Amino acid sequence: MGLLYYPAPSARPAAPDTGARTALEADAERIASAIEAAAHGAQARADGIATTPMLRAAIETDSATLDDMSHRDLVFTLNPGEVLEVFQVKGDATTSLLRLPKAAPATAAAGTTKPAVHSDGSAVTVTVTSSIAGYQPTIGGRVALVVPVELGPLQPRIAEHALRATVMGLDRPVVVAGSNQPAGASISVPITIAPDIDVGPLSLAAELPQPAAATVGGRDPIVIARYALWGLGGLLAVVYLIGLTFGGKRQLSAPATVR
Question: Is the pTM of this model over 0.90?
Answer without folding.
Answer: no
